[in-house]
C-alpha cells in the first residue's frame, strides 16, 4: 500500500478537491437544481406548487428520509422529454468534472417517470447520451444503475425490469432506493435473483435509517455487491466484521445524513469509525441539489467537522475506485493518478 506522505492541515481541503475520485452514490434526479426545475417547468408547461426558486429552496428543510422524498418526487415531475434527462445529467457531469470525479455511476428511478407516462426509452436514451458525452467531452467515465422504488411492489419492479430489457446494454447494475423503513430488502428477493441471472451488478440502499438486519438481508438475500449508506452497521459488531472481511463497500453520503437527521450533527458522523474498523467506505453526494453540496463539499465538510486526515482521504478515494464497477485497467490508471496527486501536494503548495 502507498505510504501516504504527511500533509499540513491547511493544505488538506485543496488536496480533497484536487484528488481524483469516483462517485458511486448519486441519484441523478437528486442533482436537479431549483433553477433547472423552474426552467424545465416553463419549457414543458408544468405547473409547480412554488412561486419561485427561493420559495422552493426554502422548502428544503427535512426531518427524515420521507420528508425529503416527497419533495424530490415532486421536483422530478418537470422531466418529460429525452432532452430534459440529457440536460439534467449534463449539468451534473459538469459539476462532477470540476470536482475531479473521473468515474461516476448514476442511479436513476424509472418508475418515477414511467408512472407519469414518460417512456423507458425517453429516460434511458437521454441519460445514456449524456454519459457518452461526459466520457468524450469531459473525461468523466460514466454508467447507469437502474433503481427499483422499494415503496412500490415487487410486481412493479418486475414490470420495470421488463420495460428496461430492450436497453440492457445501457445500464450496468440495478439498485434499490426510496422509503426504507417498512420495506426490507427481502421484499425484492425474486427480482434481484432474476437480475443476477441476467448478469447485472447488484447494489441496494440499506442501513440509512433502517436497522442492521436490512444490511444483512441485502447481503444474504439480495446478494448485493455494495451497500448504499450502511451507516447503521456500527450497531452490530458481527456485521462490521462481515463487511470488513468481505470488503463490501459502503457508499456513505455525509451531507445527506446530516440533512435527513441520521446524525444530530456532521461532527457526530461515523465515517472515521467505519474506516478505522477496516470497512471500504466511500464518500458520495446522494442528492446534491437538495442536501447543499456536491462530492467535494461532502469531503471538505465531513473532514473539517470530524478531523479526518490525508491518510483517510487517500483511503476513501482508493476505495471509490476499487468498489466501482469499472475495469481493472481503469482502476490502476486512476490509482496511479491518485498517488501522483498526493506526491504533488507534498512537493508544491497548491
Ligand atoms: N437518500 C436516499 N435514500 C433512499 N432513496 C433515495 N432516493 C433518492 N435519495 C434517496
Ligand atoms: Zn441514495
From TrEMBL:
Binds 1 zinc ion per subunit. NCBIfam families: aden_deam (TIGR01430), PRK09358.1-6 (NF006850). Belongs to the metallo-dependent hydrolases superfamily. Adenosine and AMP deaminases family. Adenine deaminase type 2 subfamily. One of its GO terms (biological process) is hypoxanthine salvage. The keyword Cytoplasm does not apply. Its EC number is 3.5.4.2. It catalyses: adenine + H2O + H(+) = hypoxanthine + NH4(+). InterPro entries: A_deaminase_dom, ADE, Ado/ade_deaminase, Metal_Hydrolase. This is Adenine deaminase. Residues 20-338 form the Adenosine deaminase domain. One of its GO terms (molecular function) is zinc ion binding. The active site is at 208 (proton donor). The record marks 229 as: Important for catalytic activity. Catalyzes the hydrolytic deamination of adenine to hypoxanthine. Plays an important role in the purine salvage pathway and in nitrogen catabolism. One of its GO terms (cellular component) is cytosol. Keywords: Hydrolase, Metal-binding, Nucleotide metabolism, Zinc. It is an enzyme of class 3 (hydrolase). Its cofactor is Zn(2+). The keyword Zinc applies. Substrate binds at residue 287. Zn(2+) binds at residues 25, 27, 205, 286.
Amino acid at each position: 500500500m502507498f505510504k501516504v506522505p504527511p500533509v499540513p492541515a491547511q493544505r488538506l481541503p485543496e488536496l480533497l478537491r484536487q484528488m481524483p475520485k469516483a462517485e458511486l452514490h448519486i441519484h441523478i434526479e437528486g442533482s436537479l437544481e431549483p433553477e433547472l426545475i423552474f426552467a424545465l417547468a416553463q419549457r414543458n408547461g408544468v405547473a409547480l406548487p412554488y412561486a419561485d426558486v427561493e420559495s422552493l429552496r426554502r422548502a428544503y428543510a427535512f426531518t427524515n428520509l420521507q420528508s425529503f422524498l416527497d419533495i424530490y418526487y415532486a421536483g422530478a415531475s418537470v422531466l418529460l422529454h429525452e432532452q430534459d434527462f440529457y440536460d439534467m445529467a449534463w449539468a451534473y457531469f459538469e459539476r462532477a468534472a470540476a470536482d475531479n470525479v473521473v468515474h461516476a455511476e448514476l442511479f436513476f428511478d424509472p418508475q418515477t417517470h414511467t408512472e407519469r407516462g414518460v417512456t423507458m426509452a425517453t429516460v434511458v436514451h437521454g441519460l445514456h447520451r449524456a454519459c457518452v458525452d461526459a466520457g468524450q467531452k469531459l473525461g468523466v467515465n460514466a454508467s447507469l444503475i437502474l433503481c427499483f422504488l422499494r415503496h412500490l411492489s415487487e410486481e412493479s419492479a418486475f414490470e420495470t425490469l421488463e420495460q428496461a430489457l430492450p436497453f440492457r446494454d445501457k445500464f450496468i447494475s440495478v439498485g434499490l432506493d426510496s422509503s426504507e423503513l417498512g420495506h426490507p430488502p427481502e421484499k425484492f428477493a425474486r427480482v434481484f435473483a432474476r437480475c443476477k441471472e441476467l448478469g447485472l451488478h447488484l447494489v441496494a440502499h440499506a442501513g440509512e435509517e433502517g436497522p442492521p438486519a436490512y444490511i444483512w438481508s441485502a447481503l444474504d438475500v439480495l446478494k448485493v455487491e455494495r451497500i448504499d449508506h450502511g451507516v447503521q452497521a456500527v450497531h452490530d459488531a458481527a456485521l462490521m466484521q462481515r463487511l470488513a472481511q468481505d470488503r463490501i463497500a459502503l457508499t456513505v453520503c455525509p451531507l445527506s445524513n446530516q440533512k435527513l437527521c441520521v446524525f444530530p450533527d456532521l461532527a457526530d458522523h461515523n465515517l472515521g469509525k467505519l474506516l478505522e474498523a477496516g470497512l471500504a467506505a466511500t464518500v458520495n453526494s446522494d442528492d446534491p441539489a437538495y442536501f447543499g453540496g456536491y462530492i467535494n463539499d461532502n469531503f471538505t465538510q465531513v473532514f473539517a467537522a470530524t478531523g479526518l486526515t490525508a491518510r483517510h482521504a487517500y483511503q476513501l478515494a482508493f476505495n471509490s475506485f476499487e468498489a466501482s464497477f469499472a475495469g481493472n485497467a481503469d482502476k490502476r490508471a486512476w490509482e496511479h493518478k491518485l498517488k501522483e496527486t498526493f506526491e504533488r501536494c507534498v512537493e508544491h503548495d497548491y
